[in-house]
Each structure stands twice: as structure tokens, then as C-alpha cells.
Structure prediction request, 934 residues.
Amino acid sequence: MRAEAKLGLILLLTPLLLWLSLLILIPHVDMFLVSLRERIGVGEYRISFANYLTFINEPLYLRTFIRTAVMSTLATMITLLIAFPVSYYIAKIARGRVQSALFLLCLVPFWVSELVRTFGWMILLRETGLISNLLQWAGLVDGPVEMLYNDAAIMVGLVYTSMLFMVVPLVTTLESLPDEVIEAGYDLGGGGGAVMREIVIPHAAPGIVSGCIVVFMLSLGNYLTPIMLGGKDSLWFTELIYSQFIVRFNWELGAAFGFLLLGLSSAIVWGMLKLTGQSLEKTMG
Amino acid sequence: MSPDLECKNLTRRFGDTLAVDNVSFSVPRGSFFSILGPSGCGKTTIMRMIAGFLEPSSGDILIRGKSVVDTPPNKRPVNMVFQHLALFPMMNVADNIGYGLRRAGVAKPEIARKVEEALDRIGLPGIGSRKVNELSGGQKQRVAIARCMVLEPDVLLLDEPLGALDLKLRERLKVELKSLQAAFDTTFVYITHDQSEALVMSDRIAVMNEGRFEQVGSGQDLYYRPDTAFVAGFVGDTNRWSGRIERVSGDEMEMRTDSGMLMRGATHGRSLSEGDRADVFVRPEAIRIAHSAEELAHFDNRITGKVESILFNGAASRILVQDSSASGEIEVNLPQSGEFSGLSRGCEVQIGWSGAQGNCFAAGDA
Amino acid sequence: MTPSIPQPRIVTLAYTGYVIAFFVFLALPLVVVAVFAFNDSQFPSLPWEGFTWNWFFGSERPMIGVFHERSILRAIGTSAFVAVLVSILSVAVGLSNAFLFNRYRFRGQEILYIFMLLPLVIPGIVLGISILVFSSRIANGMWDLAQWDIEALRPGLTLVVLGQFSFIATISTLVIAARLQKFDRTLEEAAMNLGANRITAVRTITLPYLGPAMIGAFVVAFLMSFENFNTTLMLVGSDAPLTIAMFDRLKEGSTPLLNAVSLLLMLGSSCLALVMIAFQRKG
Prediction:
């Protein structure tokens, strides 16, 4: 390599390496090391798995962890089910200006802070909220109904917040499927179901995978939605992390929790990529 | 025996535009029928109506005597080879070919057998497990046809399937398609804007323009006996002059072109009268070239001119001759005998042709 | 199904109905937030007490509007300050990364690329705490070693900027790299053929070509930073950016003041989004 090119390479590599090492790699390694510390006295620590043992032995922690994982999976599936027909409509049924307008409309909520979106759902769902009033007005219920502060409300919030991240990859992959190929599926005798199963869904697989990965990850790591829409006992794992760090000041346990969350999310992402034979570069990049 | 495909007064409107205007035709069993026309003439609309992807505004489509207008596309006994072939990229070759059989509920071993058979038939045995994108252009083409043919359709529709291929491959596949059609003995309906494809492969050709069939006939009919000015101009290369008819007597006529040349020709029974505006079409190969005027004495049209340029193209070489008396430019085939190989730009040459070889149409036809 | 496949009317109608219902679902919370910003009441809920601008311009208790509420205004300023810094950093690093991955081939490049994507799949809150833990440990170490108190390493705006940058840089890299990928390198060669040196060719040809992508990346980075919550929550000090300030208020109970702020946020981000779309069209 010529000297000039080598210099260029070094100059361009420096910011990348600084960023990835100082803000990503080392902090995570450090967090892992902190999670392995056990406090045995004032300012005295030793290396042990005590924090992870606490996690396993304390039913509340473990239960919250599993609950978070299950609810996030559920939220991902619901988001996919709701988003797929809409994405298909945008990509394959709508044409021209309607198509771009609908797509743009899907992006709108994304440009608004998650806090605002969640706030909107609070206004809608609470006892004095719009839906409760609407139901009373329609005579379907006698008194005010509280729809906030339960798991269903969390689910609505998660699905709503994640919708965009499912719709965009789905629309992009579905748009790349030529109409001709769908028509060929019918022309050769396929019905709607067969064409969907054998042609559309296999084609959309990369979009489905990347949408699911992002939605799952966002749900798992969400903090606002469960806190604002969830009830007293609908704990989310991120709440535990926050309270260990900020309220209890037990960074060792908090770091262990953080690492567990990271592990879970990485495991699911990796598992989905392997299961469907996709790679991170293709789905994300 | 009813024809394989029959369209009766087929019409299709898109808003105010009439894409297909009252077209009727029938295609006999086992023949190769082409619809030839420039892009936007409505040929794709006809094809999509036959396949079931568009509903006719009025008219009827019959396949083996039965109307299919109310049959959804997946139930019609026609299959289609799409413009870009539309092979399913998510399946391998065998699954592509077996797709329609699976839809029809054929048993698995039977499907495997039929797929093998189809692959043999298209001369590509053993490629069943290949991925679609590993195939060459010609192989894809054949797989797309096999995918339809395993379903034994009454009619196979082909929507310019050679359009995306390069010239060499296109030439080869023309011949191949024709022999595949003979091998499968199925009715092919082929649409194209490439006249050479239509002329080489078809038993009968319909020339289409602005939603209507201008003429239906064999390649020879269209080439030598065009019904309309559009066909004369569209099929094959031709010289074309516009002018005013000065004299008509019996089958003979004379026309003065706008550039001042006098053309003699034949009416071929078309109604033309003095004073009409008209167009005369003469093919470059109908025009003879000579060094001296005497050699052309038997032609009723003779012109002395200068070679304007030489368009060398091997066996299809031509020259452009500038008429010395008027400003017309005439395309003339260069004989292959080598007699005129010394010709260069600016040389004076004599050209002539028999008026009966040309075709004259009253203007406004095209 | 495509428009060319005939479907029973009822199916088409049901499908269209579903899509409409979906967009109502998308719009509902935002519309509700916007509408109640004008409710002449202490609570953003029914009954409707009449229309008022007070939650924007009111200056007397109990209805102090956004434009007279110091803490909210300051939080907006803080957010904007953070967002600008994050955007500048992200676009600069993103540009450098795009060139690195597009123009150079070196050992370990693929691994580095995958590594570069990772911040997208790390939960924001984990990013936040890992940076918090790391920086605090360095700060403590410095104090123990030399009695230096490095304020920047304690929770505060510096850490917020770094934390947001750590994942927004990935996004800006992807946006700029995507455009650079489409660049026709013969244009640079043509410039050099016409007498430019390599640096000048990049400066006069390639960078202007990347302009729309850089503006796009800047706007996306700005918006993502402005509305970031998870990472910021873990790193914030005494100066709270807007999302954190609103969150703290919301925990105490909601007033239409928050609706008014939200509506302004929506308008602001729509304007930015429109600006970006306009630039993208031009480019």
C-alpha cells in the first residue's frame, strides 16, 4: 500500500476505533467486570457470581425477566400480524401518490417522541379518558372503566411504538417483489393462500426477520411504556435495572441485570438470524 | 373442432382511452400466433385479459369454445410466460416447475416424475436442484416455459419473453422457441414489438396499432401484401414517399412526391383517385442498382443519383442514394455479387424498380 | 393479491377497512394529545371545557403556558444543544466511516463492520449504564490517584452527548454509506483527469454529491437525539433535556401544558422531516 493511502486509512480508522472501543467495547467489558464483583466490606470487593446467584434465587427478579421476554415476544408477534397486511397494502395494492402518502403517514408517529405517544395513550385509556367516555356514551358500560395500568395497556403501547420498525422493512422487501411474480403464482393455478405461503412470505423473510429483531429489541429495552401504562405489578426488567442503579445504588447487581438483558437480546437476535439463515449485515445494513 | 382461443369484439377502456378497440380473432389448435405492434398499441392489454389479470370492458374470450371471462386467472386453462419470466427466486428450478402441479394437488412422486420429464424435454436434465439465479438467460427462458408446459395448458401466452436478452441469444432462442412449440404441440400466443421475432416464429401474425388489428395473416402476407400503410411501414424496412396522385388508369398510377419525384406504381386494387394525397412504399431490396441507364430500361421507375452514404452491414449492406433532380433520399440494397464493392460516396449511380413492387395507400390510412 | 387479481368485493372492502382502521390507530394518540392542548381545563381529559390558547401563551397561575414556563424552555434549550452536538459528531464520524468502508479494503474489515452495527441491537438502557459505569470508574480512579475531579465523567450533558452519539453514529454511517455506495467513482477519476488531485476531487465532487445524505443524517440524528429517552435517563445530571423534564412532570400528574409542549414537538419534527424530504428530492 502506498504511504498516502496508508495515512488515509489510519486517519479514517481512528474515529471509528475510538468510538467503538471507548463507548461500546470497553464500557461493556467493564460493566461485565463490575457485575462479577461482590461487596464484602466498605470499598472491598471480590470476584464472584454472587450477583447472578441473587438474580436466580430471587423469584421477583427471575419472574420479571421471563415476563419481560415473553411479553416482548408477544408484542413482536402482534406487531408483525398487524403490520403485515398494512405493509402489503402499501407495497402492492396502493399505487402512485396514495402509496407514498400512506408510507409517509406510517413514519409520522416515529418523528414524535415516544413520551408523547405514550402520553396520548394515557389520555385515551385512563378512567376519565376518551375511550371510557365513549363507551359510557354508547351505553356499553355503566360507569367509568379504567383501561390503563395493566398488561394489555403495555401491549398496546409497545405495539404502537414499534409499528414503524416493522412496517418499513416489510414495505421495502415487499416492494421489491415484482407484481409479475405474484401474477405468475396465480397464473400457474395458485390461490391466495398458496401464493402468500410459497411466494410472498418467503420473499419477505428478510424484512420479517429484521423487523422482528428491531421490535423485539425495542420492546425488551423499553422503559417508558411499561412505567407509564403498566400497573403496580406489571414490572419490566428495565425498571429493575433503573432502580438498582439510581434508587438503591447497587451498581454491581444493576450491571449484572444489564448484562442479562444484553445477553437475552443478543441471544434472540442471533437465534433468529441463524434460524432464518440471514446475517446481521444484510438485515441491518 | 373449436379453436383453442377465440376473442370476440374484445374491448378495454382505461378511463377515456380505448386500449383495445373491438378486436376479434381466433387461433387454431396447435398454431403459433403472434401479435405484433409498437409499444402502447394494446397488445399487452389483450394478453392480460386472456390471462385473467384484466377484465374486458366488453366482448368475450373463449378457450376451446368455453367463455373464460368469469374464470379467475388461477382457474384458466392458459398459462403465461412473463416478460421478465417471473421465475420464483425463493425456489429452486424443480420447485418452480412443480409449483403449478402442487397447486393442482398432484401426488409428490408424480410431480417429481413430471418435473424430470419436463427438464429432459427442454434439454436441461439434472438441473432441478439449481437455484434460479444460477441459470443463464436462455436456461431461465426454457425453465419458464417448462413451468407452464407441465400443466398442459390449452394456450400458452408469451409476453415478449426475449425482450430483455441480448441480440445473439435472442436470435438463437427464436429458433428454439419455435421448435419447443412444435415439440409440445401447444397453441402459443406470442406478443412482441420485434417484427423479426414474429416473422421467424409465427404461423399467423396480427399487426396491432392503436388498439386495433390492422391485418392478420402469414408473415409473407404482411410483408408482400400489406393491407394498410401502417403494416407496410411497420413490417420490414421500406422507403416511403408522400405526395399527390397525378394519374390513375386501371391498375396503374402515378404520384408526384412532395420533393418533386414522379413515381409510377400499381394500385393493387385499392381505391385511389387523382388528386388524392397518398403514400408510396418501396422496399430497399426491390430497387435495382446499375452503372448505366440501359440496364434498367425495363423498369418503369428510373432515377439517376449520387451515393450519399454507404451503410455497410455485411450481407444486409445498403446505400443511400440522393436523387439528382429532387431532394429525395432512397435506401437501396447493395447486391452481394461484389459488382458494386468499389462504390464510394459521391459516385453517380442509376437505380430503378418496378412500380408493381411498391404499395400505395391513400393518406390518412396511417 | 395485486390489483390485477380479481377479488370478491367484500374482501376488497374488508381489506380497505382494515387499512383505514390501522391509520386511525396510528393517528389517534397524536390527535388526542394535540386536541387537548387547547382544553380550558386543568386536566387533559374530558369533559371539554372550551377552547383556549392559555396553555401556550398564558402567563398567570394556574394556567402558565409553554412560552412562560422557564423550566420547560430551558429543557428545550438543553435538548437542542445536546442534539446539535450529537448530530455534528455523528455526521462527522459517519462520513469518515462511510469512506473507510467504501474505499478501503483491510484485514478485519468485515468484523469491524458487524461491530459497527452492534449499537443498533444493544438496548438503549444498557448502553447508558455501561457508559455510566465505565466513566464513573475512571472518574473515581482519577480521584483516588491524583485527587482530580473530572466533572465531565460524572452524569451530565457530556455523558448524555456521548451516550446518544454511541448509537446514533451507526445510523448516520448507514445513511451516508448508502449514498456513497451509489456514487459513480469514474466522476472522481474524471476530476483527476481534468487536473484535480485526490483530495480536491473528493472535496469538489464527492462531498457535494453526499450533501443530501449528510443533511438527511443530520436531521435524523437531531430528531433521534431530541427524543431519546432510555440512554439519556441513565446518564442525565442536573440539566434535564426535554424528554426527561416532561417525564418528571408526567409522573407528578399531567396538565394540558404537556399537551402543548407535545404539540410543539410534533410541529417541530414534522417541519424538520419536511425539510429533509425536500432536500432528498433535490439530491
User: Anything to note?
Assistant: Chain C touches chain A through 85 residues (CB under 8 Å). Chain C has two domains: 1-68+253-264, 71-241. DSSP finds eleven helices and two strands in chain C.
